[in-house]
Amino acid sequence: MEELSALAEGFGHALTWYNVALMVLGITLGVVIGVLPGLGGANGVAILLPLTFSMNPTSAIIMLTSIYWGALFGGAITAILFNIPGEPWSVATTFDGHPMAQRGRADEALVGAFTSSFVGAIFAVALITFLAPAVAKFALKFGPAEFFAVQFLTFASFLGMGRGTPWKTLASMCLGFALASVGLDGVTGSLRMTFGYDELLNGFKFLVAVIGLFGIGEILTSMEDGLKFSGADAKLRMDAVIRTWKQLPRMFGTFIRSCIVGCWMGITPGGATPASFMGYGLAKRFSKRGHNFGKGELEGVVAPETAAHAAGTSALLPMLTLGIPGSPTAAVLLGGLLIWGLQPGPLLFVEQKEFVWGLIASMYLGNVVGLIMVLTCVPLFAAILRVPFSIVAPVIVVICAIGAYTVNNSMFDVWMMLAFGVMGYLFSKLGYPLPPLVLALVLGDQAESSFRQAMLVSQGDVTVFWSNWLSGSIMTLGVILAFWPLAQGLMNRFGRSRPAAA
Amino acid sequence: MSAIDPDQVHDVEAEKPLVSLRAADIAVALLFLATSAIVIVDSVRLGFAWLPNEGPAPGYFPFYIAVTMGIASLINLARALPQPEGEEAKPMTSVPGFLRMCAIFAPAVAFVFAISWIGIYVSSAIYIAAFMLVVGKFPLWKALAVALGVAGISFAMFEIWFLVPLPKGPLEAAFGF
What we know:
The complex is a heterodimer of chains A (502) and B (177).
Chain A: H1 2-14, H2 17-35, H3 41-48, H4 57-82, H5 91-102, H6 106-139, H7 144-161, H8 166-180, E1 183-184, E2 191-192, H9 206-225, H10 238-247, H11 252-267, H12 272-286, H13 298-314, H14 316-322, H15 328-339, H16 348-351, H17 353-384, H18 389-408, H19 411-430, H20 435-457, H21 469-501
Chain B: E1 17-20, H1 21-46, E2 50-51, E3 55-56, H2 60-80, E4 91-94, H3 95-118, H4 120-134, H5 140-161, H6 170-174
Antiparallel strand pairs in B: 1-4, 2-3
Helix pairs in contact in B: 1-2, 3-4, 4-5
């Protein structure tokens, strides 16, 4: 058990007073971010990233991941108490969480949500502990062809597993790649798509895109609909914790199902949002109490929360081992690693052992600290929601502007943030998914250079991606996923035309 | 209750419609096509052919990405074009909804413009105070308290605590920053 001794050492690095204090600070900020509209995991972490530049990398990532855990916990509070999902992945939590709150069982719903989030996250961290070193060791053998194959699979899975129309997913993804290619070409040094503007020399910063797309876009949507929090009481008595925990063991099957779905969706970048819907759907179908779902069933809160947290956490596995993030937030953390001078990918496990195991240990600790904090401080966090939106909205715009400016100390980025904000609003209204765009913007350069390197080695022969079983099988899987919606569409048409003919 | 009040939930679908989802869908698909055309033009300038011993030319990858984006947007356009029969066109936003968005966005543009002249702290204080006064209908002292508080805390955090310099104007210069 080499991993366990490394993990124990990691606990040694993570368990200092300074780091635990950062954890508490991060989780508090994270819950606030998760509760407020317009600030979410991805852009919250992006805005706070510059504050960590002066810290050492281990402490910095502990603080940033804690913000992420906090945001994951925080989304559930608004979903249950006010029927307003603070984060997209807590939409499925409202289905049963809010009816429970209306029947005066808000405390049970909250305890159930937090506990199941915790279970999902710990399951995913355990998976990372034992799987990540193996994946990293395996990935050390990767060449450019294999890396491109994995990146191709990442993007293909958006097409194969995304909800909504695959053509919009494809368009959104390509836009991300196109934006990523703007600026100095890393291989030949020629300028691309700058049209003589010096500001475009460095290309589009994805952190600015994240802040604009998710932050300003969300503020616009909330302004359009108006926002008023009115609703259930957030009193949480300690006996509710015991009462709820007594009910949880009989949901063992749901926990396991949601954990597996969540981890799968997190590692392949399906993301936390589809994972939560799938977890809910599966539980509804297989649970004995499935017919009660939607009327305020505890199991209907447990299922999506477990899956969302398992997905949110396991999204860090490909980020650490392959340098390919599984979610927009993981992408922002990856950006942070690069800024601190760490190269994510398989070598991280060899060269930065202390950092990696400190991080993994902090994931266990962060979730324990997070669970205790949210269980004890719910009324406090719910009080934030009494602040009127006409105060919150301009303050968030200001925070976003500061965040966008600090990415590169440039006013141009602040203007870009506003433009991305309008884009984010339009895209979410029209059903263009944002995560593929963000991931393409992050991975665009890498994907392009591994593609070009592989092609250079083979002298322009595309079959290089099928030259060995490893990249070949990954590529084939990617191609199947990419064309899955098309095949499904054809099958549906075929299936429908047959009975009509008969 | 005014139509702009953001602290009230509005039923956007019941208000006077401004743009239908279909029109917006078509417009965005056309914007995608325009973007793809721009990228293709520049990729052709850079060359998208295979160069011996150099590999793909710099325009190679963007060219094919833009072509894919163009095809996908054409399909999106084709799917958005047909007018749904019988049912009423779904609105994307309403006139009051748009005004509410302008209420935050138009001042935000002015705010970003002002940053270059008077610094980020002063302009954010004015922006927050103005929004609270005009849109939120708060009393002056509350608006000033929140605005100065936010500006003060961010100044302390960035300039003093974390030493991240943000744009400053004449006011900060007068205090020697």
